[in-house]
Amino acid sequence: MALDNPDLKDVLKDVASGVLQLPDFQRDWKWDDERIRALIATVTLKYPLGVVMSLHTGGASPFKARTLKGAESGEGKTPDLLLLDGQQRLTSLFQALHQDAPVETRDGRGKDMTCWYYVDIAKAVGSPADRDDAIVSVPEGKVLKRDFARTVVLDLTTTERECAAGHFPLHFVFDTHRVGAWQQEFVRNPENWPLWMKFQEQVLNNMLSFDVPMIKLAATTTTDAVCAVFERVNSGGVPLNVFELLTATYAGNREYVAAHGDYYRLPDEWRGIKQDLTLAYPVLGRPESGPDDGLSSSDFLQAVSLVRTWEAKQEGSGTVVSCKRRDLLNLPLEDFRRLAPRVAEAFRWVGGFLERQSIVRTADLPYRTQLVPLAAVRALLGREADAPAARERIAQWYWCGVLGEMYGGSLETRFTRDVEQLIDWIRDEDAPQPDTVAEATFHEVRLDTLSTRNSAAYKGIYALLIRQGAVDWHYTEDALTPGQLVERSVDVRLIYPKSWIAKNLADWPAHVDWAARASSIVNKTPLSLRAAKSMSGPPTAYLKTLSLESGMRPEWFEDVLATHLIDVNALREDDFVRFYEARARRLAELVMLAMGKRTVGRDTTEW
């Protein structure tokens, strides 16, 4: 790493020629007019601009590079330097002081505008405190109007008019020939000589000698370090993610370009993968919402990394299974292209697995993150994962993760352990259980506090009720199926209305917070929107209506109610306390069956 202080005019020349470019992961800029004018004023006063940071390329850029906005003539050149920090400042200065074109910016209201920048000579040679006021922006047509565009207050459409108004065009400042020609016109009036001399001394000389402190990182700086540096110096902006950095890295892969005649477009590849997955299984994301909804690009890259490092460890060329940030940043394009189809197919299998668990919508997915190791395991096992015993163990692992709420904290270590341990457990029936299975517990009192979709276990119990055969209370011909959940607008519906519970809780045991339990998953069940429309008031008020609408004999309709693990007699008698106790026990049994292990019972005093 070295610190240099090149002149601003030389830095802007490098921008124009393509010697200094941006790594493609840098986002587009657009500073507003006020900030640009303040920046120019800083340069004219020779006040410190702040350090910028760049990376030597060594003649071979590690990322796909692009020119700064306005310097498109430098495209096609391999840059010597990549700008990591200072894009907004240097782009603003390049457009305002170097390019012979108006600057694209925004006004104070955020409205797009195109303008030229001038300096009012008379104001500029006054007090430095007034320098901001001396920097003027005028519209692209170089005519400034007021009074709803009815009055011209400044016309700078010709050199003569610029000189008459005493406004120097700042995009001339580093072109000595044009500055000289403009000066000759300005001093045609001999009275302007003293003013020009002050202007040259106090403004132009400052700009011509203005230097830019620049840290230059060595070409040997690792990709991981570049990413870390970039995020630290850009802490006020939107964080850079691994996918964006890999996009630029892969696009700059010269071997790929030489072999295919074009650069590799990672976003296009991901968009195609994601579209295929979401069209087949909307639980992985809503197709109409684009590639960022549901399953993320980072999820996919992590799964690829888990597969890659697991295989490397088996071959002896690696020592750990990992999907940390540095592993993703060091993922070679060749390996990504080799593994991406397998991992994409594995996520398709995951979509089918979720459907068999009655999870078909993104809103009902307990943990998106748990799909990463699951896809990696499928990619590594292949058809081996479809054997009945393998499916049973995968399902047990999955539900232990969901109901034990194991995927709510630090994940990267759990990812790697689950991949290795789950594969061993599937291949060897005597192998120890994965930690996610062995450590998972479900306390039955947790049912009382599962009240929103923010909890994975809440969504899990909802799915298990459907999977075990719940029949809708309006569409009673058969049990709910995954395909009907969207078609019939099935959602979690209250069994007893909260308002009714609030009116009656005075008659129930006082040591229990019944109002809170009214929102619990115990008092909810999956039902269609049509069934919910007939559920007005307590069960004694709506059950008769639902039974008549079903066209079934009353005792048959009671069998339908029982598919939701409900004590039908308690429901018909509006005995909420007895209903709640019975259903909580049955839901605990449902959880126990899914996890393949006993739940932690509640103290009898907790009823």
Keywords:
607 residues; four-stranded antiparallel sheet; 28 helices; 14 strands; elongated; six-stranded mixed sheet; alpha+beta
Give a concise summary.
This protein is of the alpha+beta class. The model has no long low-confidence stretch (mean pLDDT 91).
Question: Which descriptor suits the 3D outline?
Answer: elongated
Radius of gyration: 34 Å
Average pLDDT over all residues: 91
Strand content: 5-15%
Strands side by side in the biggest sheet: 1-12-3-5-2-4
Q: Helical segment tally?
A: 28
Number of DSSP-assigned strands:
14
Helix and strand composition category:
alpha+beta
For the termini, the CA-CA separation is 67 Å
Question: Would you give an account of this structure?
Answer:
With 607 residues, the chain is α+β, with helices and mostly antiparallel strands. Helix content is 48%, strand content 10%. The protein has 28 helices and 14 strands. Strands 1-12-3-5-2-4 form a six-stranded mixed sheet. Strands 6, 7, 8 and 11 form a four-stranded antiparallel sheet that branches. β9 and β10 form a beta hairpin. α12 runs parallel beside α15 (333-356), α15 (333-356) crosses α16 and α17 packs antiparallel against α18 (412-427). It is elongated and about 110 Å long. The mean pLDDT is 91.
